[in-house]
Design brief:
This protein is about 50% helix and about 15% strand. The protein is of the alpha/beta class and about 220 residues long. It folds into two domains: about 140 residues, Rossmann fold; about 60 residues, Arc Repressor Mutant, subunit A (Orthogonal Bundle), CATH 1.10.10.10. Strand 5, helix 5 and strand 6 form a beta-alpha-beta unit. Helix 2 packs parallel to helix 3. It is globular and about 60 Å long. It starts with a strand and ends in a 5-residue tail after the last helix.
Length: about 220
């Protein structure tokens, strides 16, 4: 009897998550062993279930998919990761791959394309949805070899990302300082650095950027 490959689905939209579970479970070589509705739960389920693959959305509450991918890769290095998203922009693709994703599939993919993506990643291959230019992966590999910066988002430090999330959630500088146990002056410095790195100019711009990246939900 063929061994079924174990999959965890991380997707905050219930209808889509349930649809994916039904779709994947219809294949005799695939088995859904866990589901997550946010990034933090995805990390926990990946550790608890030890799946062969995590299928993960990039826009989720509590912790966005990019950061969750990074943590899953660090904590569960043997687990394959396939990003599933609506975003086609090169920056998203590169950032997901840099975070540790083994593949990148689009939500407008057909049933067969998604299954092909899953099986390719499980076989140890890197997969990019046909809707994403092949030049993206070439640019990623070239940039990785060169060792230089690859995207604006990559230049933002983990602490700055935390500050950005809290700003987008509506917290004031003093509240952020208390939550992160740092000074108000340090918060202001982080805010200034974020704006400069991402070429954003006010709180509205920061919030819109955070929503677009899935750092916070609408």
């Amino acid at each position: 009897m063929e061994t079924r490959r174990r999959i965890v689905i991380a997707e905050d939209h219930t209808i889509l998550r349930e649809g994916l579970r039904v779709l994947l479970s219809s294949h005799p070589d695939l088995e859904v062993v866990g589901e997550a509705v946010d990034g933090r739960e995805a990390i926990r389920k990946a550790e608890e279930a030890a799946p062969d693959l995590v299928l993960i959305d990039l826009s989720m509450p509590k912790m966005n998919g990019m950061d969750a991918i990074h943590e899953i890769r660090k904590r569960s290095p043997d687990t394959k990761i396939l990003a599933l998203t609506v975003h086609k922009a090169e920056e998203y693709v590169l950032t997901a791959l840099q975070a540790g994703a083994d593949g990148y599939a689009l939500k407008d993919s057909t049933h067969q394309e998604l299954v092909t993506a899953i099986r390719s990643v499980l076989a140890g291959k890197r997969y990019l949805s046909p809707g994403v230019s092949e030049q993206v992966i070439e640019g990623y590999l070239a940039g990785k070899k060169a060792g230089g910066p690859k995207s604006l988002w990559e230049s933002v430090t983990p602490r700055e990302r935390e500050v950005l999330k809290l700003i987008a959630e509506g917290h004031k500088n003093r509240e952020i300082a208390e939550l992160l146990c740092i000074s108000v002056k340090t918060v202001e410095k982080h805010r200034s650095n974020i704006m400069e790195k991402l070429d954003l100019h006010n709180v509205s711009d920061l919030t819109a950027y955070a929503i677009d990246r899935g750092i916070v939900t609408r």
